[in-house]
Amino acid sequence: QTEVGESKRVLSGGNNTVEDKLDRIGKKIRSAINSLNYNYDYWDYVRRQEDFTDLVISLVRSLPINRESTEFLLDLAVWFDKKLSEYDDSDGILQEGLYQVLVQVVKYFDSADPDCLSMLYDFTSRDSEFDLPSRIVEAVLSETTNIGIRNALFDKLENYLEKDDKDFSFNPSIALMLLT
């Protein structure tokens, strides 16, 4: 059975509360990343990365779009960012999986009030191996259709540049790039 097929089985079994579903998805993703070891030839390794990324995308797209799932996905993105340092991702396959997690986060903000952005600020001030704070902001600015969210985030970025806002920890040159 393929991992994507297995992910559908995991989601359909057992208790069906959102919390249970989030727990099953987290365990499945954490378990699946262990298949990405270096004991294989290059093409097998790339295929395993692609399979893992497909699994992640399938699982996160199955989640309801709500605050609880969004908080879970942001925590998953932090974990994913840390795990990337353990693997050769020179092809960017795993980073694409991380980006797709963030795209799912943005779906929540598309229908949310701009005040909900405060949830993101904890994640944009964390240390990161692969510049997760900038990836979060970039995903929101690139993927959201909610003008209120975009404007609130632009205002926050401008405050960061003018007043050294502590809610953001990423490189100021990236903030300038995002604003232009």
Description of the structure:
It is built from nine helices and no strands. It is mostly helical and 180 residues long. Helix 1 packs parallel to helix 3 and helix 5 packs across helix 7. It starts with a helix and ends with a helix. The N terminus is likely disordered.
SSE layout and pairings?
Layout: H1 3-12, H2 18-32, H3 42-61, H4 67-84, H5 93-110, H6 118-124, H7 132-143, H8 147-163, H9 172-179
Poorly predicted runs of 5 or more residues: 1-13
Order of helices and strands: HHHHHHHHH
**Individual helix count:** 9
Radius of gyration: 17 Å
Main sheet attributes: strand count, strand direction, barrel closure: none
- Beta-strand proportion: under 5%
Structural class: mainly alpha
Mean pLDDT: 82
Which overall shape is indicated by the principal axes computed on the Cα atoms? globular
End-to-end span in angstroms?
47 Å
Q: Helix proportion of residues, in percent?
A: 55-70%
Strands, total number: 0
Question: Which tags fit this structure?
Answer:
single chain; 180 residues; mainly alpha; 9 helices; globular; disordered N terminus
